[in-house]
Structures are given as structure tokens and as C-alpha cells.
Known about the structure:
This protein is of the alpha/beta class. The protein has one domain (5-228, 280-327): Luciferase-like domain (TIM Barrel), CATH 3.20.20.30. The chain is built from 11 helices and 9 strands. Helix 1 packs parallel to helix 11 (313-327), helix 8 packs across helix 9 (267-276) and helix 10 packs across helix 11. The longest helix is centred in the last third of the chain and has 20 residues, at 229-248.
Amino acid sequence: xxxxxxxxxxxxxxxxxxxxxxxxxxxxxxxxxxxxxxxxxxxxxxxxxxxxxxxxxxxxxxxxxxxxxxxxxxxxxxxxxxxxxxxxxxxxxxxxxxxxxxxxxxxxxxxxxxxxxxxxxxxxxxxxxxxxxxxxxxxxxxxxxxxxxxxxxxxxxxxxxxxxxxxxxxxxxxxxxxxxxxxxxxxxxxxxxxxxxxxxxxxxxxxxxxxxxxxxxxxxxxxxxxxxxxxxxxxxxxxxxxxxxxxxxxxxxxxxxxxxxxxxxxxxxxxxxxxxxxxxxxxxxxxxxxxxxxxxxxxxxxxxxxxxxxxxxxxxxxxxxxxxxxxxxxx
Length: 331
């Protein structure tokens, strides 16, 4: 059976590009993903980052839903420490009312930004991420049946039962997703260190819930596919430059690819960037197939979500087409 595949988009700005252009690129990719048969299209929440324009995630999700027809659209994720569960339920309950049976709610514990910006979002200095599990339970109630509600209710939101997904990059999130009986999405695209351990914990400790009867593990990987391995390595230098910018706190928009990275990073920076991007499907179709097959055999993901940092939009679309065609024959 073919591996179901999906897309995660941070809505990056390209060098000399505008926020409006980034949003147009977001829609173009969503429409191409729908036509190609991808299962879902998620948009990430980030703040105070000039290279991405996905801060108002729910607005972009609504815009994407309005310009597509059947692909599932969701958050990858809503960073719950930045929001009250009630407001999330109201906002996404409204979207689910307008676009029924097409919305996903991926939930993250991190703020998706730096500490100073997180404090500005919350208008308080205390770290509320420790309340994450309680916030998820509260959100479930707001989206649940009428007879489960308290005095405060989410209008609209009640009865929408928007499916929730726990996002994570550590073992803590694996324990939580297993305990709550929710699907688990591991961010191996930037945090590969605990991948195998987290996947094992989630499956071993999973407890069935009203939403899910058995574990559902989604693996998020970087993907850079091209006609040849050499071209893919060339295209990958855009992501290398982007991660290097995070290391140096420069946060520049996506840069065009370069023939090589020699002289652009130190040995220590190269090690960090390569470790950061270690979970990447990279190469021509046959190479991608071999790499995806290895992940399938080792981790048995129920779905693979791809994220790509490719500068040229046509090359980005080609990469996703290759990825989807390969996934259709791996299984």
C-alpha cells in the first residue's frame, strides 16, 4: 500500500520577495498539492521572523481552504502557549463550520519564537507551556459534544470534533500523545535526535481514545527531489543557507542556491547545519525511493509529511511531484 503523504509549509519569503508574493506561493503550492493527491496541507505558526509570513496561521488556513476544494488543511501547528484554548476553539470552530470535514488542528508546546516575543504574545512573563496538557484537554472539551461543556462554551466550535494532533520534537510529546490517545507528528525535519526513541515510546504506551483506536504516527522530513542527485544537492544549499542564518541570528529570506557552501560556513557551523537537516530525502527519484523505503522499514510511519526549502517555485513543485510519485510506489 502506498504511503500517504502531506506537506508542511512555513510560508517563506524569498530573497527580494514580498509577504504578498509568499502568500501567493502558498496558494499555488496548496492547489498543486490538491491536484497531485496529497492528503493534507499544514501551515506552521511562527512569530517575529522576517523570513516567514505565517504568524496569523488561522487566517492563512482560511485563505487556503477558500482556494482549494478537498485537501485537508490545518495547523502545523497552533502553538498553544500563545493562545487561550477558548479562542482557538472559536477561531477553528468557525473555520470548520464554513469548511466542514477539511480541517486539522496540530498542536505544539513551543511558542514558535524567542522568549521576548513569546512574552509579548502572552502579555505576561511566566512560561505557560507547562499547562500544555491541560490546554489540550480544555480544547477537546470546547470542540466536543454539548453535554461535555461547562459554563463557558465555544460558539461556534461545539460539536465540530476537529481532529487534534500532538506535534513534538522530543520524548515528552510522545508520552503525552500516547496518554491522550491522539495522533503524533514528529518534527524530524529539524530535530532528528529523538526520532526513533519517541516513535517507540508513542507506540508502546498508546492508549485508545474517542478520537483514535490505535497509534497514528506521522513523520515530518525535509525533501529535496530533482532530476539528478547533483541538482538536488545544488537546490539543498538554499536550506543550508537558511539554517545557517538561524545559527547566526540573521533570519534572511530564502536565498538562491549556490554551487557549494565552501567559505560560507565554518566547520562548526557546517556540523550544526548538517545535523539539523539530517532527516532529509535528497536526490533523484530512485535515490528518494531508496531513502523513503529505508524510513518506512525502520519506523513504519502511517504518513509522511514533507517540508521543502527550495528557492525556485517551479523547482519546488517539481520536487513535490517527484516525492508524491515515489511515495505512490513505496509500500
